[in-house]
Amino acid sequence: MKFRGKIVDVACLNHFTRVVTTISKLTKTCVLRLNPDNLFFVLSGKVANGGVSMWCELSQANFFDEYQMEGVSPENNEICLELAPENLSRALKTVQNAKSVKVKLTKKHCPCLTVCAELPTLSSSSRVVTHDVPVDVIPKRLWHEFKEPSVPDFDVSIYLPPLKTIKNVVDRMKNLSNFLVIEANMNGEMNLKIETDLVSVTTYFKDLGNPPWGDGASQDGGPTQSRDPDSMAEARVDVRKLQQFLVGQQVNPSKSMCNIVHQSVLHLILLHEDVSLQYFIPAVA
Amino acid sequence: MKCVIEGKNAKVFGRAVHALSRVGDELWLDPTVKGLALRSVNSAQSAYACFIFSPLFFQQYSFMGCVPKQSSKTVKCKLLMKSLLPLFRCLTSIERNVERCQISVSASSDWVIIQFFCRHGITKTHNLRFQEKEALQAEFASHLCTNVLKAPARLLGDMVVHFPVFQEEITLSATPLRFSLRNYEESGESQVKMMYTEMSLHPEEFEYFHVDVNSEITFCLKELRGFLSFTESHCLPVSVHFDSAGKPVCFSVEDVLFEASVVLATLMESKSTDSIQPVGTQVHATSRCVDAAALRVHACEGHGETGRERITSSQGSTVSPHPDPIPPLPQTQQANKESISVNTSPASSMVCTLLFKALSSEQDDNVCAATPPVLAGYSDEEMMEEFCPKSPSL
């Protein structure tokens, strides 16, 4: 198994660092999948995570100037590593002004993802910084746990209001209750509600717009078409999980939307030209 | 003692207090003819910092006792950092508001009076109680160090930024061809999953690079960071004097108006623990520094015999086989077996602490008779006699 990537462009390095930092704010450990075209940061929805799962896809050509990899075997040309994104984020953050950054899979005291950066200096020689981020190689038999999630059979799909606005609302609501209800309809309306014995607070958003998934996108073109546009689909989620998602965002998405499966799952999607991030929060009763 | 600091220098003084607060909990004030010395040492006695402000730094500086009729003994005192730091905490407001800062200590009372004369006619007076104490001084023979480097202003700061804030210790490794820093972790289970960072430079980045003996020293980063943030704000090149593992490392800067230095103890790696001394003060402390320091202090309180005994067990007085031009400094017995490249002396696992000497108002040449706390002993009498009187005090 071999992997070697090199980033030379400052903007790409910056962008990559911000993506990794966002991931590090969402979870303590995650799986990094590498194949010849893409990198994926995956968090599988286990009980330990509270059922939350994440899928972040990056197109390698948009970040790396050089990218070579050799997977586990020719038929399975992929590498699957478990790591703490916080370490990788820390390693990248300090080398933002590097002339070039190489990321490679190495074996030191344990398998590591080594970030090796050449920093500019006034003299002709260069400074070299090396960070060894320890990783665990995931064996092929476990790869099925980290597959791309399919888009759920959602009831409503709606564009999100600016993340900053939602974050402000959710921050305030967190003080009042542990659970928050997100409901939306196909008419571009979304409400965030909390309800306790003493108080209930609702924030209303209008004219958000609904993404045109069309017949192809949704598994069963039927439900969204025949659904009453004013009828709300809701999901009651743990407010801290939603807040954790909002707090870490470092990448400004060009499109952000969410799909709601009524009383089942909240599926958040952030799209950017080079990166897509999907986050699933299970609904609680 | 009475001194007056002009507005913009008050910020410099405040920065020095900040840097010292990163080292220890107490600050020793020592007015001398050379200037006002501020010193601090950490609780494990493995780090020492000293800032000396020359009389030129002050608008007015008089260090003798205020009342001439009384003994002209200068007052040396010790203040709690907790009381002093808040006065200088907000440096930007000091810069903006303070026109003059006056510090006075009188032998007759127990107060150090710090007055800030601010804009708009406001005067803030702070009275801090002090404890009269012998001055603290570390003896560190920097001119005897085999390796000397001088780094331009931002270089060291740029290097340590790559290490996480919680990183406690780092290892500095120098050969004539390369200089590197890497993080240090105690061996153990946690070692496997740690993230390792290493940063290396070419010697030509230094203003002066003289490495006679390849060495690798491990020391605490925290105290150094405080010092580096002071030096960076003044864009001063930093001189580094060090030797092999186990001997202290000194980082210092010099300016017309002040000189500052921090001396840090370095770790001595050990493979055998049987050389640990008979004094039986093996304290099972969590940090090596504390461990070692506790040993040192205790041992040296009964200076003379015990001190020497203990030291011989850990640091033999054997001469290093390397043809050093300098007088032989204490090396461990087993060090002779090691090759030049790596200097991990398998002595007792402890940090080699600094040589401290409590001074009375005159320099006491006979170190043996020094009053406690003498924190580290010497290898043997002759050696001590040889280099102690000559060592520059910091």
From TrEMBL, chain A:
One GO BP annotation of this record: mitotic DNA replication checkpoint signaling
Stretches assigned to coiled coil: none
Domain of life (superkingdom): Eukaryota
Give the keywords, sorted.
Cytoplasm, DNA damage, Nucleus
Q: Where in the cell is it found?
A: Cytoplasm, Cytosol; Nucleus
Q: Which family does it belong to?
A: Belongs to the HUS1 family.
User: What is the protein's name according to its record?
Assistant: Checkpoint protein
Q: What does this protein do?
A: Component of the 9-1-1 cell-cycle checkpoint response complex that plays a major role in DNA repair. The 9-1-1 complex is recruited to DNA lesion upon damage by the RAD17-replication factor C (RFC) clamp loader complex. Acts then as a sliding clamp platform on DNA for several proteins involved in long-patch base excision repair (LP-BER).
PANTHER family recorded for this chain?
A: CHECKPOINT PROTEIN, MITOTIC AND DNA DAMAGE CHECKPOINT PROTEIN HUS1
TrEMBL record, chain B:
Is the keyword Nucleus in the record? Answer: yes
Q: Which GO terms describe its molecular function?
A: double-stranded DNA 3'-5' DNA exonuclease activity
Quote the cellular component terms of the Gene Ontology held in the record: checkpoint clamp complex
**Kinase found in the keyword field:** no
BP term (GO), one: DNA repair
What is catalyzed by this enzyme? Exonucleolytic cleavage in the 3'- to 5'-direction to yield nucleoside 5'-phosphates
Compositional bias (Polar residues) = 331-342
Name one matching Pfam family. Answer: Rad9
Keywords attached to this Swiss-Prot or TrEMBL record, sorted alphabetically, are: DNA damage, Exonuclease, Hydrolase, Nuclease, Nucleus, Phosphoprotein
Q: What CDD domains does the record tag this protein with?
A: PCNA (cd00577)
Q: Where are the transmembrane segments?
A: none
Please give the residue ranges the record annotates as the region Disordered.
303-342
- Known InterPro entries for this protein? DNA_clamp_sf (IPR046938), Rad9/Ddc1 (IPR007268)
Q: What is its EC number?
A: 3.1.11.2
Q: What is its EC class?
A: hydrolase
* Family recorded in the similarity comment: Belongs to the rad9 family.
- For this entry, the protein name equals Cell cycle checkpoint control protein RAD9A
**Organism in which the protein naturally occurs:** Oryzias sinensis (Chinese medaka)
